[in-house]
Design goal:
18% strand; alpha/beta; 87 residues
Length: 87
Amino acid sequence: MKGVVVECGYWKGGAAVNLSLMCEITGRTLKVYDSFEGLPPAAPGDPIAQHTFRNGFLPGLYGGTLGGVSGAVRRFGTIDVCKFHKG
């Protein structure tokens, strides 16, 4: 089967674990992208983001680490089908 699966933003790696197993079954590669910085600050003039941050979603929230995510995939998924990218 051709193609890859892309996940953008993976926090602690739960979805990456599941997607890695599906990619192993289907013969695909999982490309996982994350900033490792959590939520960005609200942009000026973005009322939705500003409202969200006023209600407890602070910049940096949901930040994970590459080691934490790859460790979860190694333990519960299939690391061999994964390629991790910062950005």
